Amino acid sequence: MVTTLSEAYRDHPLHLHHIIPLDFSSLRTIPDSHAWPQSEDGDDDNHGAGSCIPIIDLMDPSAMELIGLACENWGAFQLTNHGIPLSVAEGVEEEAKRLFALPADQKLKALRSAAGATGYGRARISPFFPKHMWHEGFTIMGSPCDDAKKIWHNDCARFCHIMNNYQKQMKALAEKLTHMIFNLLGNISEEQKRWIGSTNLCEAVQLNFYPCCPEPNRAMGLAPHTDTSLLTILHQSQTNGLQIFQEGAGWVPVHPHPGTLFVHTGDILHILSNSWFRCALHRVMVNSMRQRYSAAYFYAPPMDHVVSPLVLDSLPRFRSLTVKEYIGIKAKNLGGALSLISMLNNN
């Protein structure tokens, strides 16, 4: 029986050429493998629209209601007074810089296997797009030490301690946000909430690196997609690049604010809320002058948890299924997974 996220991805292996990143440090031009159609809006700062993405103070007495509105209208918000010390996030960013600055041959010692889910490599969504992304990643599920010691041998203790602490603190924040969101949804039994705080959650930390790019309008840092998770909590360096798609506004930049964390919703929350809450379609653009780093924490119920729409005053828009089953569907249909479980097409 599949019990972990890592084991679930093992059932859906990738081709090895979808895993190995380029050595970006050696490139002066964009190879055809990474040349996307010319972007018309990649450099559009769109400051007015960007400022509309809510910034919510978690200590605000109205925080729960504001989070609900943000999930409904944007599927995303920036969070202040979240309780994660700035030093924790900065420590993770420094470790990410130390990792990705290593020579390519050293990073490749922790290369993710075709059937693996952790370690160094390209974005897992790579096979769904005709071009590759200007990106390197390092995925952690459970202990970071197994992969880190392949790179640093006897010098990985600092990296492991910082990543373990980050994952622990992000989990606590995700639990707090999930309780608030479930209170908004209402009519949720204690049985349906029992998984919160368990030890067999689907959780992961993803370190991302977007190198400087000689032709940023012809490259893509991370292609448009939604996350499978219930919630994704992101620390990003003070460099623009992340964008959220908003109907009527197009691609809206998420301007980093010091000390904030960026939270966005995933497919599982979209299903649970019966499509009341959006699942945030997002992408990452690159630039020619500044590198960009981020650390994403993905949070979802356990593999065997049955995901069902929890809104009882309307007909269910999606069929019930386990987290494992949905991961399997999305592993084969990145952009069409939700439509494949839709009840609206089965009249």
UniProtKB/TrEMBL annotation:
Pathway: Hormone biosynthesis; Plant hormone biosynthesis; gibberellin biosynthesis. Signal peptide: none annotated. Residues 198-301 form the Fe2OG dioxygenase domain. Its cofactor is L-ascorbate. PANTHER family: 2-OXOGLUTARATE (2OG) AND FE(II)-DEPENDENT OXYGENASE SUPERFAMILY PROTEIN-RELATED. It is an enzyme of class 1 (oxidoreductase). Belongs to the iron/ascorbate-dependent oxidoreductase family. GA3OX subfamily. One of its GO terms (molecular function) is metal ion binding. Keywords: Dioxygenase, Iron, Metal-binding, Oxidoreductase. GO terms for biological process: gibberellin biosynthetic process. Its EC number is 1.14.11.15. PROSITE patterns: FE2OG_OXY. Pfam families: 2OG-FeII_Oxy, DIOX_N. This is gibberellin 3beta-dioxygenase. InterPro entries: DIOX_N, IPNS-like_FE2OG_OXY, IPNS-like_sf, Iron_ascorbate_oxido_reductase, Oxoglu/Fe-dep_dioxygenase_dom.
